[in-house]
């Protein structure tokens, strides 16, 4: 397993479970319900709701699947099925306060034990692997390079070698094409560091400036995609219901939906053009030929990737010595927007999911047509 990818998974556990205060809160909840005055259903169910919300958030970051890869001696605490256990006792109307406490106390104690077991192993792993982090011979990362990873989770891509090879080849070309939009230097071949198991995770080296721009570009796409998902999952239904059958207003709402759907790819294309224009001011030698076609290719591949539930990670962001800078942490922002999209996508109906795939999923004939144009 690539060291930077492993450390990123450990950091995710720390961020969501330790630094957020979740582990501390679980311990406090256990202590609080030992007091007889707190053993009432209202108080305990409120604690249960808080825990469930945090577990759902962790799931949106794919913490369970990340821990499966990172852990060797212990099972991920996510496999305790705490969320479903809490939902079961919360929905059991036959449980009185005493019976609820007995079950709740066991669930929380097992959760805390599982978290602590995971933390101990991950802390030990971090101490060992940080010695071999960026800049070592392990992957010979140069000063002008960054590590990124493409995470493929959709079944269509991962179920067959034939389909997967097509997608990887498409991304290989897209990364090189995107490089030419923002840098004048001839791009190196995209070098693979590792292909990991689980959901297929391809770790690769890429120019650090291109990596930062690409992370920013994908974050923009995720934000616009997330806005569309929020609209479709809740607001659209509420708005249309409020029109009370008014056909003109309903038609206007349908047009708005179409525009928001189109804007997913358009926003990526617009940002890519903005990046290209900004980089030209600094680097006059950037190739200006075929910019529109390059941007269309890049935005098409990125949109196809994110609407299928796949991810892109920036594993080694550039370090800054200016502590007062207002520049956002792209690594964190990219993770947050990915989690938001994942949560909102769950609320989407089958027809809307199909609409997304029909509109943005790259078909073989599309790829073939694009290849012929470039010949």
What does this protein look like?
The chain is α+β, with helices and mostly antiparallel strands. 67% of the residues lie in helices and 7% in strands. The protein has helices at 3-19, 22-32, 41-60, 63-70, 82-91, 97-129, 155-158, 161-182, 208-242, 247-282, 291-307, 330-345, 350-360, 364-374, and strands spanning 145-152, 191-196, 200-207, 311-314. The protein has a four-stranded antiparallel β-sheet with strand order 2-3-1-4. A hairpin with a 3-residue loop joins strand 2 (191-196) and strand 3. The two termini are 38 Å apart. The model is unreliable at 135-139 and 321-327 (pLDDT under 50).
What is the structure about, briefly put?
With 375 residues, the chain is an alpha+beta fold.
What does the radius of gyration come to?
24 Å
Strand order of the largest sheet: 2-3-1-4
Mean pLDDT: 88
For the sheet with most strands, the description reads: 4 strands, antiparallel
Q: Structural class, judged by helices and strands?
A: alpha+beta
Strand content: 5-15%
Helix content: 55-70%
What is the H-and-E element order?
HHHHHHEHHEEHHHEHHH
Overall number of strands: 4
Unreliable segments (pLDDT under 50, ≥5 consecutive)? Answer: 135-139, 321-327
Instruction: State the distance separating the first and last CA atoms.
Output: 38 Å
Shape: globular
Question: How many alpha or pi helices?
Answer: 14
């Amino acid at each position: 397993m690539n060291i930077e990818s492993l450390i990123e998974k450990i950091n995710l556990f720390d961020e969501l479970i330790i630094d957020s205060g979740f582990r501390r809160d679980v311990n406090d909840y256990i202590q609080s319900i030992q007091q007889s005055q707190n053993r009432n259903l209202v108080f305990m169910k409120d604690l249960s709701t808080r825990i469930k919300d945090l577990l759902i958030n962790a799931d949106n970051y794919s913490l369970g699947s990340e821990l499966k890869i990172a852990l060797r001696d212990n099972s991920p605490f996510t496999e305790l099925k705490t969320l479903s256990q809490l939902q079961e006792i919360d929905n059991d109307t036959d449980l009185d306060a005493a019976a609820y406490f007995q079950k709740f106390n066991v669930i929380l104690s097992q959760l805390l034990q599982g978290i602590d077991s995971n933390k101990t192993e991950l802390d030990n792993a971090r101490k060992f692997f940080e010695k071999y982090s960026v800049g070592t011979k392990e992957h010979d990362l140069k000063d002008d390079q960054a590590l990124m990873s493409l995470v493929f989770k959709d079944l269509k891509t991962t179920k067959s070698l034939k389909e997967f090879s097509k997608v990887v080849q498409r991304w290989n070309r897209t990364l090189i094409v995107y490089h030419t939009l923002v840098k004048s230097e001839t791009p190196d071949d995209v070098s693979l560091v590792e292909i990991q198991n689980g959901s297929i995770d391809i770790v690769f080296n890429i120019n650090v400036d291109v990596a930062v721009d690409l992370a920013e570009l994908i974050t923009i796409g995720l934000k616009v995609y997330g806005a569309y998902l929020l609209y479709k999952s809740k607001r659209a239904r509420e708005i249309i219901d409020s029109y009370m059958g008014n056909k003109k207003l309903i038609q206007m709402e349908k047009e708005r939906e179409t525009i928001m759907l189109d804007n997913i790819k358009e926003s990526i294309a617009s940002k890519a053009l903005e990046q290209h224009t900004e980089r030209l001011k600094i680097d006059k030698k950037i190739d200006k030929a075929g910019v529109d076609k390059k941007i269309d290719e890049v935005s098409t591949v990125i949109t196809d990737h994110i609407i299928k539930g796949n991810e892109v990670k920036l594993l080694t962001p550039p370090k800054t010595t200016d502590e007062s800078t207002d520049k956002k942490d792209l690594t964190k922002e990219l993770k947050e927007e990915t989690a938001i999209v994942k949560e909102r996508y769950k609320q989407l109906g089958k027809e809307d999911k199909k609409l997304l795939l029909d509109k943005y999923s790259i078909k073989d004939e599309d790829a073939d047509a694009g290849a012929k144009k470039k010949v």
